[in-house]
Design a protein that fits this description.
flat, 5% strand, 47% helix, two-stranded antiparallel ribbon, single chain, mainly alpha
Length: 362
């Protein structure tokens, strides 16, 4: 089974990483803030026809509803069409807001640029393919190479005609987030109005409007908040179970010189005693925080990166062998299917309402 993987480059994302923003351009297709004649009618955001689902339908009952919300499960062509329509609408909203604030809607002129999620190189991992795992491990340290070598490549934008003060004023118009003393971003209440979002800058306001118009905003809609809280509670409940396959997998990992893991998958844990990929990812991020050697942190150049890749591969192979030995994936999927089947039976009316709302916003 192949898994999609993408390493986030930083910046502000729209829900499922619709877009990012950087202070320089990336070597990938970009979208400018248009002030042209594109329609702002939300009926043009996406067509209600041609909802092309991927030929590989999910075995999990909730995916029949949640795929419509998150925009997953569709063909690549449909995903790209939706992203393009959402980005166009976001551009329209930003252009409107920036114009009202007295600015041109040319981000590059101010030293900034938006790019769609598809501009971030994506790659597939094959955690159940032993040959692939033996070469790449989990695909963490080698993400740059697997992504085609484009990740993080940037070039300078043309000189801005605006002064540093004017560029800073533009950034303030886009992002006016209050910052805590410890540097953490302040989080707004859930019941804010559009006017309150507008006080935080054009981007938060445009993001808020777009989420109100698209399925991605349904989880925070008052009508569906109880449903998504119930979904989260159900998922946490079955994932917290001290299941036999988790115990058997942990024992197997210990026998293969990787003791200390308690669970194969534990989304509520962010310690080294959670799943193996997280431990490698944390170590890789620590290496990236150190000034790079000449040639960067590439495997074969940076001894720390090379050593971590070797550990990643060894751990990933042990993980694969242990999952295979205890039939981990099939047993885990069976528990998830059972929990979701019961949940759908208990909440069918609310879920059908969610489906209708997602289709109406699509």
């Amino acid at each position: 089974m192949a898994c999609k993987a993408v390493r986030w480059l930083g910046g502000i994302g729209l829900a499922a990483v619709l877009i990012g923003i950087t202070a320089c351009a990336v070597s990938a297709p970009t979208a400018s803030l248009s002030t042209g004649t594109e329609s702002s009618n939300t009926d043009n955001l996406t067509s209600n026809t041609n909802k092309i689902l991927d030929s590989h339908s999910s075995q999990f009952p909730l995916d029949n509803y949640l795929n419509l919300v998150w925009g997953t499960g569709f063909s690549q062509e449909e995903i790209l069409r939706r992203e393009g329509a959402e980005l166009q609408r976001l551009n329209e909203l930003l252009a409107e807001c920036l114009h009202d604030a007295g600015f041109e809607s040319d981000l590059q002129a101010y030293g900034m640029q938006f790019f769609p999620a598809t501009a971030i190189p994506e790659f597939e991992t094959f955690p159940n393919d032993r040959d692939w795992v033996a070469q790449w491990g989990y695909g963490i340290v080698s993400a740059e190479q697997l992504g085609g070598g484009q990740r993080g490549v940037a070039h300078e934008l043309p000189p801005s005609p605006y002064s540093p003060a004017e560029q800073e004023a533009f950034r303030q118009a886009l992002f006016n987030f209050p910052i805590k003393e410890d540097g953490e971003q302040w989080h707004r209440p859930l019941d804010w109005t559009s006017e309150q979002y507008r006080e935080l800058g054009c981007f938060p306001w445009a993001r808020h409007i777009l989420l109100e118009e698209t399925p991605l905003g349904l989880p925070s809609a008052n009508e569906f908040i109880p449903l998504f809280e119930a979904i989260e509670e159900m998922q946490s409940a079955w994932q917290r179970d001290n299941s036999p396959e988790e115990i058997e997998w942990a024992a197997c990992m210990a026998d293969n010189h990787f003791p200390g893991f308690e669970r194969r998958t534990d989304p509520d844990s962010y310690s080294d005693r959670s799943f193996p990929e997280q431990q490698i990812d944390a170590a890789w991020l620590e290496i990236l925080s150190i000034p790079a050697l000449p040639g960067g942190h590439a495997v074969g150049v940076d001894p720390a990166a090379t050593a971590l890749l070797e550990r990643e591969i060894t751990m990933a192979l042990a993980d694969l062998d242990c999952r295979t030995a205890v039939n981990f994936d099939a047993r885990l999927d069976a528990r998830r299917i059972a929990a979701e089947t019961q949940f759908v039976a208990d909440h069918r009316t609310e879920l059908e309402g969610l489906r209708a709302a997602a289709e109406q916003r699509s």
